[in-house]
């Protein structure tokens, strides 16, 4: 799943190509991806792009002027991606026969597709007058790389939360932009168990968690910066310390990276670095043994 660093990379890439360009085509190919109907997405045709922004994991392409704004907002979900073209293919796109959900063309012949792999379709596209009209954006918590996200602000978010820290980091209404992969990475750097209760963290652990969050995301954004969309996924995979590396050696201590599997994803951790050597139970096996 693209998370804040990759979406920031996409936003930076598009910000060098879209502003000043006129949208000549905005074709919804997978109708399930379009989550709004008023204003109609067809109104994007003829609009000039003003700016590109990121809100958590949402990308926001602002068009029109302040008196008549129209935003194309999208969330790539678990299996979505953006495919850029210097020249958009002339071949017609047929619904139901392609992973393409949306095709956008520009007046210089360039453009992009939003694609989604697999059968579970979660990619979401919105045409709105203001990004705040998108429910997922309206409920976002603070961005972890904003100046207002301080150590004390994080401590306030964690206070009284009797929930596992892994879930808190992934909760978009608490902190915007962190998903499954970077929460694994942050907790590994902080040497915290993913099952540690947020409310039970000591002041020293909060200090370490805050530093790990800022350092991990800052480094990931720097890695994504300047890369075209086609290279961002591989750059993310190469930068992972534990996420997606089950069975490999921890880069810190050499212990084996372990996984805990859930219904539709997994988490990865190092027992020596994070759980005092304890192997966390596999949730799938635990259910079978009940």
Automatic annotation (TrEMBL):
<dbReference type="GO" id="GO:0006284">
    <property type="term" value="P:base-excision repair"/>
</dbReference>
<dbReference type="InterPro" id="IPR010663">
    <property type="entry name" value="Znf_FPG/IleRS"/>
</dbReference>
<keyword id="KW-0378">Hydrolase</keyword>
<dbReference type="InterPro" id="IPR035937">
    <property type="entry name" value="FPG_N"/>
</dbReference>
<dbReference type="Pfam" id="PF06827">
    <property type="entry name" value="zf-FPG_IleRS"/>
</dbReference>
<dbReference type="InterPro" id="IPR010979">
    <property type="entry name" value="Ribosomal_uS13-like_H2TH"/>
</dbReference>
<keyword id="KW-0863">Zinc-finger</keyword>
<dbReference type="GO" id="GO:0034039">
    <property type="term" value="F:8-oxo-7,8-dihydroguanine DNA N-glycosylase activity"/>
</dbReference>
<dbReference type="Pfam" id="PF06831">
    <property type="entry name" value="H2TH"/>
</dbReference>
<keyword id="KW-0227">DNA damage</keyword>
<dbReference type="GO" id="GO:0016829">
    <property type="term" value="F:lyase activity"/>
</dbReference>
<feature type="domain" description="Formamidopyrimidine-DNA glycosylase catalytic">
    <location>
        <begin position="2"/>
        <end position="123"/>
    </location>
</feature>
<dbReference type="GO" id="GO:0003684">
    <property type="term" value="F:damaged DNA binding"/>
</dbReference>
<keyword id="KW-0238">DNA-binding</keyword>
<feature type="domain" description="FPG-type">
    <location>
        <begin position="241"/>
        <end position="275"/>
    </location>
</feature>
<protein>
    <submittedName>
        <fullName>Fpg/Nei family DNA glycosylase</fullName>
    </submittedName>
</protein>
<dbReference type="GO" id="GO:0008270">
    <property type="term" value="F:zinc ion binding"/>
</dbReference>
<keyword id="KW-0456">Lyase</keyword>
<keyword id="KW-0234">DNA repair</keyword>
<dbReference type="Pfam" id="PF01149">
    <property type="entry name" value="Fapy_DNA_glyco"/>
</dbReference>
<dbReference type="GO" id="GO:0003906">
    <property type="term" value="F:DNA-(apurinic or apyrimidinic site) endonuclease activity"/>
</dbReference>
<keyword id="KW-0862">Zinc</keyword>
<keyword id="KW-0326">Glycosidase</keyword>
<dbReference type="InterPro" id="IPR000214">
    <property type="entry name" value="Znf_DNA_glyclase/AP_lyase"/>
</dbReference>
<dbReference type="InterPro" id="IPR012319">
    <property type="entry name" value="FPG_cat"/>
</dbReference>
<keyword id="KW-0511">Multifunctional enzyme</keyword>
<dbReference type="InterPro" id="IPR015886">
    <property type="entry name" value="H2TH_FPG"/>
</dbReference>
<keyword id="KW-0479">Metal-binding</keyword>
<comment type="similarity">
    <text>Belongs to the FPG family.</text>
</comment>
């Amino acid at each position: 799943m693209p998370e804040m660093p990759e979406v920031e990379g996409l936003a930076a890439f598009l910000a060098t190509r879209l502003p000043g360009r006129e949208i000549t085509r905005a074709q919804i190919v997978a109708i399930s991806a379009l989550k709004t109907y008023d204003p109609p997405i067809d109104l994007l045709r003829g609009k000039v792009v003003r700016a590109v922004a990121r809100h958590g994991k949402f990308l926001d392409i602002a068009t029109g002027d302040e008196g008549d704004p129209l935003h194309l907002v999208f969330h790539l979900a678990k299996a979505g991606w953006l495919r850029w073209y210097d020249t958009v293919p002339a071949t017609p796109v047929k619904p139901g026969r392609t992973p393409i959900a949306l095709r956008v063309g520009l007046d210089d012949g360039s453009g992009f597709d939003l694609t989604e792999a697999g059968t579970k379709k979660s990619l979401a596209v919105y045409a709105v007058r203001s990004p705040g009209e998108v429910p997922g954006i309206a409920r976002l918590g603070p961005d972890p790389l904003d100046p207002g996200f301080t150590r004390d602000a994080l401590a306030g978010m964690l206070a009284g939360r009797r929930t596992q820290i892994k879930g808190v980091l992934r909760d978009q209404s608490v902190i915007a932009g962190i998903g499954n992969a970077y929460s694994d990475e942050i907790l590994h750097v902080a040497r915290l168990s993913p099952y540690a209760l947020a409310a039970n963290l000591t002041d020293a652990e909060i200090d370490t968690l805050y530093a790990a969050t800022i350092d991990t995301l800052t480094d990931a954004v720097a890695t994504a910066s300047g890369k075209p969309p086609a290279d961002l996924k591989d750059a993310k995979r190469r930068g992972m310390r534990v996420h997606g590396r089950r069975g490999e050696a921890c880069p810190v201590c050499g212990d084996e990276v372990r996984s805990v599997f859930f219904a539709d994803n997994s988490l990865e951790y190092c027992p020596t670095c994070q759980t005092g050597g304890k192997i966390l139970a596999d949730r799938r096996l635990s259910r079978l043994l009940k």
